[in-house]
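Example record for the data management plan.
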Amino acid sequence: MEAAVVDRRAGRMSGAEFRAFQHKRPDHERWELLGGVPMMMTPPTLSHNQIATNLQMLLNDALDSHDPSMLAAQRPGLELASGDYKPEPDVGVIDADFGAGQRFVEKAYLLAEIISGTDDIPVPGTNRRWVDVKRDLYCAHEHCQAVLIVSQDRMEVELDLKTENGWAASVLEGGGAELSIPAFGFKCLVADLYNKTPLAPRRAVLT
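Corresponding structural encoding:
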């Protein structure tokens, strides 16, 4: 998959210019700002959407009991300190109290990306993948407590957890691995994230 780049003759965009541009685009288009360059992301796969839905539901089930002041949402627009970057996480845990018509948040407590083809594109002016830059941006976000990078083609989750001594990184491989994020009262098997995808298809009910 490829990412479509806005006409470079328009020059670099500031964060404010990008938000003004984004406001004029149709809702079905998904744009992110990479190092000052706006890019339209390709539509996600069905597997991508199902994994995001599974993660959102599992997180909300945990938060309902652990801390109802937060909720998990898909594609929350995130305002970061750096104006050159405006990512749109696949799933984020945000404050449950938000306004009607609100698109963007300044605080997110968990941020997750389900890796897609456009995450592998290099950020303009660097040789780094967009997903790697996003991971660093999320870890630098002062309110963030956990970052998840979820693979689509295999059961694997990269997990970063904020601790008193900084960030601790781990890789969970295989469906039987346990994903635990105590700050959100969240625990599941990695396989649960892939429910109803080709990696863990729904089984037909025999009658």
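Summary line stored alongside the record: The mean pLDDT is 89.
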